[in-house]
Amino acid sequence: MFVFYFFAAIVVLLGVASLRGGISFAKYVRSQLVLTAPEFIPRVSVIAPCRGLEPGLRENIAAILKQNYPSYEVIFVSGNADDTALELVNELCESVSANSDIRRRIVIAGEATDSGQKVHNLRAAVREANPTSEVFVFVDTDARPHDNWLRSLVAPLKDERLGATTGYRWFVPDKGGLASHLRSVWNASIASALGGRDDKNFCWGGSTAIRRTTFERLNVAERWRGTVSDDFTLMHILREAELPIRFVPACLVASFGSCSLHELLEFTNRQLKITRVYAPHFWRSVLLGSLLFVLVFFGGIALVVTKAAFGGPFIVPLLSLLIIFGLGAAKGFVRLRAVSLVLAKHQGRTRESTLAHVCLWPVTSFLYLYNALVAAFSRRIRWRGITYELNSPTEAVIISRE
Question: Where are the extended beta strands (E) located within 120-213?
Fold first, then answer.
């Protein structure tokens, strides 16, 4: 019992620290939402890599094309001219008013040979960007940005000391289902790792902006060669240059959809495999932290049940588990309420997930442990129909394509 109480105390302390982090995240989100963004509206190239049809693609692309921004171009880039997404892209681009100041076009990058397909597409699109564009913005087509997303993401770059600005993704389950809610809760813990510390933030490739001069000075396009993770690589480049990354809460974007258990495991395993290759210290933290939690929490449940069944004292270990659960549940609730302010247009749908964010977080901790263990033994991922072997941060081998 002493061993259990010792490690339970550590988990409680970590839970308190985690809750404080969640409260800090919520405070930062609320404080930023009431600030007036600086007036900075340079010419922008928005680059959106495409591959295949996905749930909500029509609405997502339409949202990118109707930003409240005076003049910008959108470059949709795919590796294949026969990509099924391009027909929809063409249809939506044609529906944009001819008098609009939005330039929209399609770039065919061809199949990747020495890097991930997404990275290959980004490098090709950057070369085709309008020479007058001062800022590059990268967006994923599974994200549905609100009308002021582009203006909010670009505005902080008025401060030339910044390296980049970033938002993040928030999964909103379309049809419910345990796997879909688990994906949302699993992903939420990463979102709340962002905050007011510009030196600690990371980039998310689905909602990132960077000045063109910074991008070219740091030779980002060339340093992307051989990589699969555009955002981890960009984060490392900016940290090497000691350039801060500003998290813009207003640029949290909803990603609508549902997933099966198989798709959940494929997604979460891929994220941890990529993390192990590009940020091994993060992976080790996830492995050790989730291992400690699972042993204490789920081991504690087994201990309480066993003692109760055999008439032993179980009140103190049960209270320990309730404290641990309460701390995590409080963090999930605080975080969700803050994000609901950002996604006000979808507030009803995000709050439908309240029970999941309050109750399912221990299960996602178990899932993190599984993901981290899988990543310990495999560097092979499947992403958008392509299978890669991640030999190193600068070497990705394409194994097969669908």
Answer: 135-139, 164-173, 207-211
